[in-house]
Write a structure and sequence with these properties.
single chain; mainly alpha; Ferritin; 11 helices; globular
């Protein structure tokens, strides 16, 4: 494939998690975008590995971090989120036509950073004596992607600005738990992820506002409507306000969040 948007379909449809991440990193961000092309994939989207078993998020139970298995389970859950994030970014590249070229290069770059995060976490899992797929996981992120597949405004408004922004909030507590249990390498990886995820959420904020302006919509009122329409998770404190500010949430948005 010699253009950026069709090229995203290769790793998106890959069923092996490690090969998916590696193929994403190999994509050429300088390839022509072809923003106006309407693509019709011939493959199942996204490609899923045989493992992990996907179950309801309410059935996932943490284990004590005093054990290696308990720490591996927590690292595995973050790795699963990062693998889903690869698919989410690649899906945005091919699915939505007729946007500025910078939209596609932004999300392809984000896909590559998510791939790096997944490989770091998977490498750490292996060092703990486990691998990706050894524990069950949930499919909530991709379920939201399916619900928002017909509207780029809903996809960008809910996935990076809501679901991925929750990762900014959760990261400090997860890092503290793992370091407290003696897993300093996991803490280092989470620092890398947090720094780059701030940029991913910032891209979501930037394109959300672009889309709202293009449609003549108020961003705050529209966001509330999207959350209700698509039954998105309700945000609960604590919030990582410094990270959210760096990711481009403005004072009015943070005031609504605080309320």
């Amino acid at each position: 494939m010699n253009s950026l948007r069709p090229a995203a379909l290769g790793p998106l449809c890959e069923t092996d998690a490690v090969r998916k991440a590696q193929a994403t990193l190999a994509l050429d961000l300088t390839a022509p975008v072809r923003a106006h092309e309407i693509l019709k994939p011939e493959w199942h989207i996204p490609g899923r590995p045989v493992k992990p078993e996907l179950i309801a998020h309410t059935l996932l139970k943490p284990q004590p971090l005093s054990s290696v298995q308990g720490r591996a389970l927590l690292v595995h859950s973050v790795a699963h989120i990062e693998l889903n994030a690869i698919d989410l970014a690649l899906d945005a590249v091919w699915r939505f036509p007729d946007l500025p070229e910078a939209f596609y290069t932004d999300w392809m770059r984000i896909a590559q950073e998510e791939a790096k995060h997944f490989l770091l976490l998977r490498e750490h899992l292996v060092s703990l004596g486990f691998d990706y797929g050894d524990f069950p996981a949930h499919n909530a992120l991709w379920e939201m992607a399916e619900r928002t597949q017909d509207d780029v405004l809903a996809r960008i408004g809910i996935v990076p600005r809501t679901l991925e922004a929750r990762g900014l909030d959760a990261s400090p507590a997860v890092k503290k738990k793992l370091i407290g249990a003696g897993d300093h390498r996991a803490g280092e990886i989470l620092d890398i992820i947090l720094e780059e995820e701030i940029g991913h959420v910032a891209a979501g904020n930037r394109w959300y506002r672009y889309l709202c302006e293009a449609r003549g919509l108020d961003p705050i009122a529209t966001y509330a409507e999207l959350i209700a329409r698509y039954d998105a998770p309700k945000l609960r404190p604590p919030f990582n306000m410094p990270a959210r500010r760096r990711a481009g949430f403005d004072d009015a948005e943070l005031a609504v969040l605080g309320a």
